[in-house]
Amino acid sequence: MQGSSVRTRLREIAHGRSGDKGSSSNIGVIAYTADGFEYLRKELTPERVSLYFRTLRPIRVERYELPRLLAFNFVLSGVLAEGGSRSLRVDAQGKALGVALLEMEIEVPAELLARCTRNTKEGTL
After folding, report:
1. How far apart are the C-alpha atoms of 74 and 61, rounded to whole Å?
2. Position 52 in a domain
3. Which of 47, 55, 80, 96 is deepest in the core (most CB within 10 A)?
4. In 3-state terms, the chain is what percent helix, strand and coil (to 5)?
5. How far apart are CA 76 and CA 20, in angstroms?
6. How far is CA 82 from CA 40, 52, 87, 88, 119, in A?
7. What is the pLDDT of residue 102?
8. Per the structure, how many domains does the chain have?
9. Is residue 110 part of a domain?
């Protein structure tokens, strides 16, 4: 029998950072636990991130895995128009995109969510 799942936000199992390079934004997503990383490896695909940011019209979304850090780096090409110094976008440097991605709703098995939140990580953040 399949366990129940919970609809939650990405921020419950990961934290993030973001920045820019020219017209592209980098978004780092860091899972709180190894189980969370493995779940996100399957669920947080470049296609899903591209769809989430579709209104910014990314030319391409690439995902790089950093398993020893339990992290992913997403490069969203073209989302910052002409870049930080030339763009008229409110967030011309992409600093808020990491926070925006952490607001993405995801469906997580309840049993997994209990093991993957920041409260279950050893130590403190």
Report:
1. 7
2. yes
3. 80
4. 35, 30, 35
5. 9
6. 31, 21, 5, 9, 40
7. 96
8. 1
9. yes
Confirm whether 38 is domain-assigned. yes
Is the pLDDT assigned to residue 1 strictly greater than 80? Answer: no
Domain that holds residue 26: 5-120
Structure pTM?
0.84
pLDDT one-digit tens code per residue, 26-82: 999 999 999 999 999 999 999 999 999 999 899 999 999 999 999 999 999 988 876
In angstroms, the CA 119 to CA 16 distance is 16
Q: Find tokens 């993030």 and name the residue.
A: 16
Residue 86: is its pLDDT beyond 90? no
Q: Which amino acid is at 12?
A: E
On whether residue 125 sits in a domain, the answer given is: no
Cα–Cα distance, 69 to 29 (Å, whole number): 10
